[in-house]
Amino acid sequence: MKPSIGGLPSGEQWAHELKWDGMRLCVVVTNGQLRLYSGSGRDVTSSFPELADFGAHVGADGTFDAEAVVFEGDQPSFSRLQNRIHVGRPSQELVNANPVVLVVFDLLSLGDNDLTDLGYGQRRQLLQELLSDGPGWRVPPHVEGDGQPLLDLAIERGLEGLVSKQLDSPYRPGTRSQRWVKVKVVHSQEFVVGGWVGGTGKLDGQIGSVLLGVYPARTKTGADLIFAGRCGSGLTDAYRKQLWDGFVPAEASPFSGPLPRDKVPHFVKPTMVVEVGFSQWEQDFQLRHPRFRGIRVDREPTDVVDETRRISPNMG
Asked: Would residue 182 show up in a list of annotated catalytic residues for this protein?
């Protein structure tokens, strides 16, 4: 279940949590054994061996909604998480250098009982009764009613923002619900890569920047990408290699609308999802000061829609 984007909601029917800058996971415990699945349904259990004891700690079968987070001090570090999410079987050295913490914020089933029709407040209470913090996992605090103090804390600490949830909201997997609201402090979102343009100097013939797009929110299936600009800042040699290895060339543009004409674009099939930070998204749908943050192997391209403002349906 995914949140919509909006302002901070008010009222006693709302609960508020910090938004963790990590990798969303579905956590399944069966007979004390742990399985981890990414948002795209891929089994990533072997990527996070430090979480293996979680199943035994729970002491019951269950399904959890969680986020894999790498902390730097008390701050989530998306750049350090990048060292982990592409590695299927990490070395102990890599695990020690970038340990993952499982931040668990919802309980979807317990034993043979499906809990998704219960309200969020009820599920949260059951989660807190079942699970205590351990060496590699935690249940983060949440507040009910007034979320402004928690939002102020997110701003003070430079965190991504909050997720606000109606206390009586059921859990609907795969949906983007108005009953969950993501309140952003830092502008950052996922984009689909639809092409690239070459660099200059030592990057001549290599990826200088990537061409980014999103799908219209209501007509994303089979729709063309809305061009959202290009991004070269933050692209390291390692990222360029990962992008290059994942690109599948395309003969035609996957984008709707015009593209910049100052450089020759090379189009690729829209199969790769990346995370980009930016200062502003202009009225002409171009990003200001974009900075590449990482590659999202846990997202399906067709799930990537405009999170900042509504795209007019006729633009699809």
From this structure: no
